[in-house]
Amino acid sequence: MSLDIILILLIDGLSTGAIYLLAGLGFVLVFSVTRVIFIPSGDIAAFAALTLAAFQSRTVPGSIWLVAAMAALACLAECMTHLRNGTARRLPHAIFFYAVLPLIPCIVGLMIAKQDVPEALRIVTTMALILPMGVLIDRLTLRPLATSSTLILFIVAIAVHFLIAGIGLIVFGPEGVRTNPILDGVTTLPGGVVVPAQQILMMIVALLLSFVFYLFFGRSITGKALRATASNRVGARLMGIRPERAAATAYLIASGLAAIVGILIAPVTTMYYDSGFMIGLKASVGAIIGGMASYPITAIGSVFIGILESWASFLASDYKEIIIFSVVIPVLIWRSFAVHRDGDEEIEELA
Amino acid sequence: MNDALLSLEAIHVAYGKVEAVRGVNLALGEGQITTVIGANGAGKTTLLSAAAGLLPWSGRARYQGEDLSRMTVEDRVERGFCLVPEQRALFGDMPVLDNLLLGAFVRRRDKAYVKNSLESVFEQFPRLAERQAQLAQTLSGGERQMLAIGRALMSQPRLLLLDEPSLGLAPTIVRDVLKRVRGLRDQGVSILLVEQNARAALDVADYAYVMDTGEFVLEGKAADMASDPRVMATYLGGGVE
After folding, report:
1. Of B137, B156, B175, which one is at a domain's C-terminal end?
2. Cα–Cα distance measured from residue A262 to residue A256, given in angstroms and rounded to the nearest whole number
3. Distance from B84 to chain A by nearest Cα, in Å?
4. Does the complex come out with an ipTM higher than 0.90?
């Protein structure tokens, strides 16, 4: 094997790993705050890709109607809860967050869908449209079960994935799409290896967002409140940190990450309404390596899975999936030993 | 008592079919230390958790004249009603400083307020200032208790519920912690103190209730209770047998 091939596989693996890293951070965030393994985040990524593709082909993306319908139902659910609990004074707040905010990008989307607008506006609108999806899915399906066991939450998350993917088929249709590359062209590395600019973009975005993540959780009080909820839920409530708001923030960030994942991979991978599941599943392997608790280990695990995938595709492409998912078993065995040795509470729930 | 800061009337708390608290009435005066003493399993912690909104309860409860039945834990915290639970509920994998900053979460937007609060907590608990960069889970038992109380003080509460602050602490540290509790009362914080260590609690409290198997069996001024033969016999180790 020549050095060129090693380099190409490495770069390919790093860019794939960058995608898994972004999705993996979302998994860890949502799990640590809510105990939900948020399988539908893969679907959200696919919907972002399909939405951007629709804008690029000057059609109205089905996600607009989906988000509008979910916002209406979530707003209704929230208002009914407030009326039942005698907290009617919070109704304006509920209507603003669950109806007005999600509807703004829907309206903007309708206005720009058939127009010749700059690519950046399409990307921003796609992001804004996809951003509320996690929060709305949570409000409609998971929050009523928030105090249930991890197992029940997991089963519901899987059910929600199939529900969302089914709706995806109705609103987007069965055709696969590719979007225009955000960055065109190639870069030639010293040694003559040619790398598409889009792959470099993936790595840069992952690095930048990891740094933003680090700052957010290390410096901002909102980030610390999310960590506190993950660390001790009762303790966080006694500080006035509302678990449902912490959860909404976690879902918002996870949806944002999923949207970025979808927008970044759509130019290099053909995306279908159900493509998100496999991306989410592979990213979850990285999060499992991180014990669903550690961001840095998840980052390393995700990059490892990316590199493993590119090597597996090259050396034994038929066995690619088998190789990647086989990693889960030794990792969990190792994790269970680590738990017994250190009594590490963080990963106890998973191992 | 209509002028009470916190009033509980006919409070019942049940775990399934088991009633852990049965028809309790309590009135807590502003600027006072009120204590609930009783043996392990009497229902003291259950009562406190229910009052703080962590457990469902029935009956009538008012805080600052407002009905508590429709208030969440977080609503109470926003109104200066803070619980320091028995397990301390610290954020073990976060530094002492972050634990304290989160204590002021409900007033996070007022930066000057948070800074003043932090300075005042560090003044009262200099040990916390020394250990501010250390993870909470690496603190000693006494330091954890100080952090739990310090964290609650960050929001400058009006009413502080303390659940067994002496639990697991050496006698000298218990005295220190209770001295600080009295100091808080002198600063105007009203305190509801639940303790198994009856002697220590009666020493600092103004008013006391004795709880036994889910009910209040005695109440009165703490000083009188400390010399009440029934209390002495059962809770202060001065038994006649």
Report:
1. B156
2. 10
3. 8
4. yes
